[in-house]
Design goal:
Distance between the termini: 34 Å
Helix content: 25-40%
Structural class: alpha+beta
Strand order of the largest sheet: 1-9-8-10-2-11-20-5
Amino acid sequence: MSGTVLTLVLTIFLFILHMATESGSKELPRPPCARLVLFLDSCPADPKRRLPVAYQVRRKLKLHRTTPTALAIAASSLIAFSCGLTKTIGFVSHTIETGGEERSAPVEVPASPSGPRVIIFALDGAVPAGLMDAIKSLEMPNIRELLGKDQGSGLFEHAYAAPHALSVLPSSTIADWASIFTGSVPAWDGIPGDEWFDRETATFFAPVPVSMIDVSDNTKLVTDNLIGNQLKVPTLYERLGVRSYVSMLSVHRGATYFTTVSPEALSDLFQHLVRGTLKGQEPRKSMSGSLDRDSVAKLNEAIEEHGIPDLQVVYFPGIDIFTHAAENPLSSQVRYLEHITDGAVGQVLEAYRRHNALHNTYVIFIADHAHIPTLNDEKHRLGPDDEGSPFQAVAQAGFRVRKASLLLGDPYKDFQAVLAYQGSMAYIYLADRATCPKDGDKCYWKKPPRFEEDVIPVLKTLYLSNQVGHPVAALKGKLDLIFSRQPMASGTNALPFEIFDGRELIPIDDYLGEHPRPDLPRLSERLRWLSAGPYGNRAGDILVLPKACMNVPIESRYYFAWMTHYSWHGSACEQDGHIPFILAQASGSGLKMLSLINKFGGASPSEREVTPLVLSIFGK
């Protein structure tokens, strides 16, 4: 799902799913703190302010004690059926606590009066073909005016759009934004995906939960700077050392100010839930659109209060959220870009005009990944409990598999294998079973697995299940490629992945020499970025790709997730790895923009080139 698909969105989805499941019963189940308006009064007081949650929410949102039932239902969904101020309602309480804005940097650096300045519009999940078609039409006037006349081959009067820009792997939200705003890659920055397992601490992370419904880590993106705490390299903001504002994005460590939405906007979001407008059909009436518009309103408030920054990051999670939920995802996303994104971009540009700051400001449009259309049904979902799941294959290979849950009780901590889902990619982590042979034994995860005794059995089970339907019949024909490598000891660099052909591991370039795959661009390089380095073991001992690319009929595309969607990403395919990467300047020429991007990949840059590009603009 979307990066920083905020807890608000995930818990709303969960509540709707729960409502549908329980539609046949006369009364909804009432777990603790999930009794409509009663949750406001029964949740404990905020320990920092010693005020009941009910009082804070009502005061900030101007709600009466007799809140309408519809709004109460919306509010109750935010807690995802469990109480806990710092968990699933963390986004709401944090927004109320901070007013939707907090200073991140320890020292507030003044903005440079003479520039340069940069705005980065972070378009979560934007598909480049649709974006460029919309820009070239008359439906996105604000972005079109900024770029100027189209001169062909990615060149505009005031901009250059790299035609072959690619994401890192996986093509998923958290890993990609981490690379974009550090200039590093997952094997070195420590952020390998939307979910991962850290062998050193035996901790599972799920900042965007894909294999499970627990949204606690998603909340921590906002409340606890989860990604900043896990990143092993400096962020762009830390390297620049200038005045920087970040709106909504999960990677904000070192920014001067971090903004989300204003507390008053929460009631607007609740109303969209009540009207059932999470589903991606009409952009202007969608909750996704409300989220993006409200976040821009808040960042513009910050600009008016604190002045124009040297660097402004504007994150639009709504594009991705809307696309996942739309029946015709690619065409629906174009409507969203036209009706929501262009107007929101225009509001930011207008704020800069009012301050006479737009003329010489460099503007970057970048996405983390794109989207592949999929069938929104359980038949094409390979979820943790589904018969064709890799969870089942690993269990058939003789491993005790970790439950798909963020936190486990002691009786469930004797697992010998862990799976982390990325949508169109899955990681499998294996223990040395000699350290935990019996039920109840906790494995020593700092020790790598044995290749012959631990890794090979799982590789063969996956391969045979895919090829001949044994031992897992429901997995037959659903996998594309299986990767692994020789395990390395803790504290050493992990090796690059290789392809398992049923008998042995083969270097990726050698395999592709015999079996060309133009639909998997720069596969060897991108997988090396993911797997070869000091944190490469965070991508698992085995990596699995389902059949997912656009050269496969939609009826034969599959994805690893607990939920179903109309589109997915996370694969090594060109469709979801090909991203927009545009550099513009109202007073500059397209040729000047081209000359700048040519230093960082030219027509085919990686998204990780954003950070060095911005550093060069600032002369660093």
